[in-house]
Amino acid sequence: MSDLKQERAVRTRNQILRAAAELFDEEGYEGASVTRIVKRAGVTLGAMYFHFASKQDLAREVMNAQPYVIEPLLRSTGLQRLVDITLVWAHRLQTDPLLRAGVRLAVEQGRFGMHDSASFEGWKDIMVGHLEVARAEGDLREDVSPEEVAQFVVGACTGVQLYSQLVSGRDDLMERTCTMWRLLLPGIVTPGALPAIVVDPGLVKDA
């Protein structure tokens, strides 16, 4: 495939992914028909099925795209990176349809016959990697398991955003995420490293 054709194919795929995310976010899985997705994307049905085998396959791609929305925005490392991931996630859940749809689909997937933990496991694996860096830098307590912390943070963030959505339409999600870290950090961070970990919503507002 020539560079031009490859670039066009990537652009088409992204158009479909973005259009699907917008409709999944607005209408849920059931309300987002393939016909409406291709119409919003401005592509043909053939183009849709060239890139995605089915509507479920498209939903799976939207769910798994969450890290690609957030990770490129960050420059921090170790434990600070872990905190920043969740703060940017909380901030962008207010406005980014790809992120919002990914979260909605991941939580509601049982309704449309999917039981795919890949999006949760993907976040967990990313977080384990950052926690291993923190361990190597001496910032993570020796009695703390990166795997257990990552699993807890993924589960906690899932629950926090659901609670926030019900209570305030996610208006207080950032506040709740910061509270989670203020409670969690003293139990996992070495005393010397704790003062250096910044939990500040203001630092991610432009992300």
Automatic annotation (TrEMBL):
Signal peptide: none annotated. Residues 33-52 bind DNA. The keyword Cell cycle does not apply. It holds the Pfam family TetR_N. GO terms for molecular function: DNA-binding transcription factor activity; transcription cis-regulatory region binding. Residues 10-70 form the HTH tetR-type domain. Keywords: DNA-binding, Transcription, Transcription regulation. NCBIfam families: ScbR_bind_reg. This is Gamma-butyrolactone-binding protein. It comes from Streptomyces lavendofoliae.
